[in-house]
Design brief:
This protein is mainly α. It has 29 helices and no strands. Among the domains are: about 1-205, no CATH class; about 435-615. The longest helix has about 30 residues, at about 320-350. The protein is globular.
């Protein structure tokens, strides 16, 4: 009886073959668009999956929701007039976070044993289902629904390697739709909803100014009701895009964060400090009329990088272009000084001395540039930072490499040197997790230490154990042959060692140069444009210049060749003259004073070294 029933339930072979043929183009296009599974065997396995699903009759079972067409999510039968509509829709959206037991149990245990294809099908169905919900029920979604959708899309996008166009269509387009709906319903949103949405947009690299402005306005005066996670997420989401609430909002953030500091988690502490880390002081200076206006700090940062590159070889003139730039800068400076003088005179003649001081303070704020939340005039007090570091030290063993590096970089940006006890704990935690440091986290840590300049082989300086771990780990990243370090990371590594006056060894320098030379195509940029790679190359040049022990002459010649190939026209001449100056310094004096101290420290005591330097 069982055999007969199973035979009767089984579909004909022709139907199975037809279903497999129909599903093959969709699955194959999906597989070919995913870098992780591009093999032909995976495509064949996917075709076999479709045939197996049809043969087993799973599509006809009432409790199984996987549809025959892989690009059509299941339909949710719910009406907005239903009293349980809001709750059911919340459950449907939240269920997109992970696999349904009824949808994926059989796929995981019987049909798709390969984990890569399991993940592929799961992510496809979840993304399609979430996009379908936004499309069908968009006008009826609440603020909580929209915030959850943005947060879930950000979580799905984590770790996905896709082309930019495909990434926009898959994740950013539905997230932009959800953000638009949330902006219209911001009055119904809680602070946690605002935090989830703004932080999710940050992870998706999706800039929605209207939502940022609405979230900042809606949260003003309500931060007292926010949880630590909401405080940190909202502040980090606003700061990432350079959106600056008023000073009262920033002060309220510091007060509420201080009151709940013991309840902050490790990631929340890192996010909060990222939000408070200021940009360079140049961002806070007044901007003369006619100067370019930047919508957020990413544009301003690119402009600053272009200026840094232009002044890299200070003293080298470029003819009419340099003269015109100097004249424009001088005119802008005079105009800015005149504006300050007029503002001061107006404030002194129209108000009392106290109001005059307040007016001058207001005129220090850039009239047209939108400051990031970090660029506040009233930075956290020393007591606030001390309490923050004490709480961070208590949870430092729970922090991941990205949080450790971000925390140190933020303290360096605040120009606040952490105490020796905190730094000792930081070195210990970072050395223990060195194997998990990505090139980005490692480069950011070295950049932060280069900004703090604690020194090496001195009391309170950089830990020798940490330096040894950094050298070993970075040598593996450089010599792996997989080009794990980008141009920016390579530059930060060298610049950090240079600022610490630490000589990594000629073998490390050779590996660095090999990766640097292989990145010429990545570092090259069109003439007249500013890129992150351009700034990275200039930092690499400065790293070589500031390093204590000069590299070998042959190394410098190869570095000159690689740097010259990465620039265009007159920029190549700047790099060539820069390295030529290094060669001249090498001929006159091979080691700097710090380099001699480091070299002799391996053979003599520190006292003997100091006496030798004095002589």
């Amino acid at each position: 009886m069982r055999a007969a029933s199973s035979t009767a339930a089984a579909p004909p072979a022709a139907a199975a073959a037809a279903a497999a043929t129909a599903a093959a183009p969709k699955i194959s296009s999906l597989l070919l668009s995913t870098p992780a599974v591009v093999c032909l065997c995976h495509w064949a396995a996917a075709v076999a999956v479709a045939a197996a699903v049809t043969q087993l009759g799973l599509l006809q079972q009432p409790g199984y929701r996987l549809r025959q067409s892989f690009d059509q999510p299941r339909r949710v039968h719910v009406s907005p007039e239903d009293p349980s509509f809001e709750g059911r829709l919340t459950s449907e959206i939240n269920s997109c976070y992970g696999p349904r037991a009824s949808d994926f149990d059989l796929l995981q245990h019987y049909i798709l044993p390969e984990r890569s294809i399991q993940t592929l099908v799961k992510h496809l169905l979840l993304r399609l289902q979430l996009s379908k919900l936004l499309q069908d029920f968009g006008p009826h979604l609440t603020a909580a629904h929209c915030a959850s959708a943005v947060s879930l899309l950000a979580g799905m996008a984590t770790g996905q390697q896709q082309q930019q166009q495909q990434f926009q269509e898959t994740y950013q387009a539905p997230a932009a739709r959800a953000a638009e709906l949330l902006t219209a319903r911001i009055s119904q949103a809680s602070l946690l909803d605002c935090a989830r949405a703004t932080y999710g947009l940050t992870r998706l690299q999706l800039h929605v100014p209207a939502l940022l402005q609405a979230a900042a306005t809606h949260s003003r005066g309500q931060l007292v009701t926010a949880t630590p996670q909401a405080l940190a997420g909202l502040a980090a989401g606003l700061a990432h895009w350079g959106h600056a609430p008023d000073e009262a909002w920033q002060q309220e953030l510091c007060v509420e964060a201080f009151a709940q500091l013991s309840a902050f988690g490790a990631q929340d502490l890192a996010n909060l400090m990222f939000a408070l880390a200021p940009l360079p002081a140049g961002m806070q200076q007044a901007v003369p009329e006619g100067a370019p206006v930047y919508q957020h700090h990413e544009e301003w940062r690119r402009q600053q990088q272009q200026r840094e590159l232009g002044s890299l070889m200070g003293g080298i003139q470029d003819g009419p272009a340099a003269a015109a730039a100097a004249a424009a800068a001088e005119a802008a400076g005079r105009q800015q000084q005149q504006q300050r003088t007029v503002a001061a005179a107006a404030s002194s003649s129209s108000s009392s001395s106290s109001s005059s001081r307040g007016s001058k303070g207001r005129h220090r704020q850039p009239p047209r540039v939108q400051q990031p939340a970090a660029a506040t005039y009233r930075l956290p007090s020393f007591n606030w930072l001390t309490a923050f570091l004490a709480e961070a030290r208590r949870q430092i063993d729970r922090m991941r490499p990205a949080e450790l590096s971000s925390l140190l970089w933020c303290m360096a940006s605040l120009n606040h040197a952490p105490d020796l006890i905190f730094m000792e704990c930081w070195y210990r935690a970072a050395a223990a997790r060195m194997h998990a440091f990505t090139p980005q986290s490692l480069a950011l840590s070295l950049q932060a230490l280069g900004m703090l300049r604690p020194g090496t082989d001195v009391p309170g300086g950089v830990s020798g154990r940490w330096l040894a771990a950094v050298l070993l780990h970075s040598r593996g990243l450089l010599g792996s042959g997989q080009q794990q370090c980008g141009g920016q990371e390579l530059a930060r590594l060298l610049w950090g060692f240079g600022e610490l006056r630490f000589w990594p060894g000629q073998a490390w320098m050779d590996d660095w140069l090999a990766d640097y030379s292989s990145r010429q195509a990545f570092i090259r940029f069109p003439s007249g444009h500013s890129t992150v790679q351009c700034s990275g190359l200039s930092h690499g040049d400065l790293g070589v210049q500031s390093i204590g022990l000069r590299p070998e002459r042959q190394w410098l010649l190869r570095f000159k060749s690689a740097s010259g190939a990465a620039y265009e026209d007159e920029s190549a001449q700047r790099v060539a003259q820069f390295v030529a100056g290094l060669l001249g310094q090498q001929n006159r004096q091979r080691f700097s004073a710090q380099g001699r101290m480091q070299r002799a420290a391996t053979q003599h005591t520190l006292v003997d070294v100091q006496q030798g330097i004095a002589r």
